Amino acid sequence: MNTENFIIVKKAFMLMLPSLTEFVGNSLKSNDNKNWWKRYVIDNLHESIIRNLPKEGTYEECINNLDIQACLNIIEKNWYDIFQHKLNKNLRTWAHELKDIRNDVEAHYTINKIKTFNVEDVERALDTMARFMNSINKDVADDISYIKKNMKNEKKIRQKSSNSLDVYDVEQEYKKIERRIDGWFKRKEQYNSKILYAFLKVYDDNDGIVTYKKLKEIADIGDNFKGNFDSMKNFGERNHGKIFEQNGENIILWNNVKELILNKYRQYKK
Asked: Are residues 158 and 175 in the same domain?
């Protein structure tokens, strides 16, 4: 796997992370609301995994410190107690395979590129990621499948800084929303869908005026609001898809997707 192929796989892992941490956090918390972090993470994982994790904190502080490797280890370690009741048994096998892939990616950057993968290896990695995410967040699974399908046409990823990858341009962001928007309107149980529907309800009821406080109140998803809302207003690879702009307390639709969102809303409202 040359450097460009490593970047493609790392990019796909970055797409997985927000939804995976949310899924893992909610699964653990629903099983033990009070001691979920200590019981299933701190007291249950190897020291090498937990050394960089907080010993305690708010829900958001805890899940925001999880990386791909930690999430996959949590699923494996708590499979019989929690995750076998939520996921198909194949996902346990795929989780183990993804741990190996993630280790290869990290080794490429930290141990002088000791492993090489060919195009077939990259396609297999993307296929495993898409299959794994299909039961957790179908939008993300579709995005990873899209990367695989268009691998040969992928633009070369630019280096934004020594620690982060480039952001999507406006055209790529629009295409992401275009791929996902029908699913958001159909799958109303998703947090991003609840935020979108809450926005449009307040938008209709208040002549287009929506405040952050009112949106959070109507969405009614508690601690899950901030992270998911941020992922719908920020511009980049790891977001759900940018549809909002925030100006102080006021929230508006991002102008580049406003017409698309409102047209879809009218379509599904009928």
From this structure: no
